[in-house]
């Protein structure tokens, strides 16, 4: 499993250490109306915004037993990136490979801490809420969507050819075969759950 946050012009942040658990919270909205002599009645109002939260840490030193890649970010640099997401008014795209999670989100809660005996490591708790278009009812009765951030891929694309693999494409187009995971995360909806089953003719968006 790999966890990414895509933002800006196809930039991405890759979490270096996977959490032990990822929690998803879903619930239905409703309105309670109290009718005289009949009591309370609940009326469904549609789905509420979904929340996703997990905890992990940014290690100061690379350790192959738990780090997902060798060139891990400096913990303070990683913290600053998350702080920017927290105060930003623009959503980012959360991608968690092998889970089907590929959704625009806001980072709404971020807590960090230091632990004795682990100098330089920074532990964190994150909570995301899924983003969706807000819609307004017009005077004519129609529904008008508010203008929001366009998160559709607009970068360079690559058309899969016979004999291609993600590592081969990553090496040719991105300069390193090791970047195949980022390539897969950005195109998981096109490729499907198995990163090895790419098909000729598929158009893949290239990460920067």
The CATH architecture of the largest domain would be Beta Barrel
Question: What is the 3D form?
Answer: globular
| Order of the strands making up the biggest sheet | 2-1-7-8-9-6-3
The overall pLDDT average reads: 80
Helix-residue proportion = 10-25%
* Strand and helix order: EEEEEEHEEEEEEHHHE
Supply the number of structural domains.
Answer: 2
Please give the count of helices: 4
Structural class: alpha+beta
- The CATH class label of the largest domain is Mainly Beta
Biggest pleated-sheet summary = 7 strands, antiparallel
The count of β-strands is 13
Radius of gyration: 21 Å
CATH topology value of the largest domain = Elongation Factor Tu (Ef-tu), domain 3
What proportion strand? 35-45%
Give the low-confidence spans: none
Q: Compute the separation of the termini in Å.
A: 21 Å
């Amino acid at each position: 499993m790999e966890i990414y946050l895509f933002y800006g012009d196809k930039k991405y942040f890759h979490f270096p250490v996977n959490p032990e658990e990822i929690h998803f919270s879903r619930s239905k909205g409703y309105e309670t109306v109290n009718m005289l002599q009949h009591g309370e009645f609940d009326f469904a109002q549609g789905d509420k915004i979904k929340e996703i939260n997990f905890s992990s840490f940014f290690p100061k030193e690379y350790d192959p037993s738990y780090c997902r890649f060798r060139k891990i970010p400096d913990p303070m640099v990683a913290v600053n990136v998350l702080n920017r997401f927290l105060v930003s008014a623009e959503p980012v795209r959360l991608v968690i490979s092998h889970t089907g999670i590929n959704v625009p989100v806001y980072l709404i809660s971020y807590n960090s801490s230091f632990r004795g005996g682990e100098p330089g490591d920074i532990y964190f708790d994150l909570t995301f809420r899924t983003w969706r278009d807000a819609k307004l009812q017009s005077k004519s009765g129609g529904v008008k969507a508010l203008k929001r951030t366009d998160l559709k891929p607009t970068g360079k694309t690559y058309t899969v050819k016979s004999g291609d693999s993600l590592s081969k494409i990553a090496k040719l187009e991105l300069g390193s075969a090791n970047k195949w995971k980022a390539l897969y995360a950005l195109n998981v909806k096109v490729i499907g759950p198995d990163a090895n089953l790419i098909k000729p003719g598929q158009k893949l968006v290239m990460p920067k």
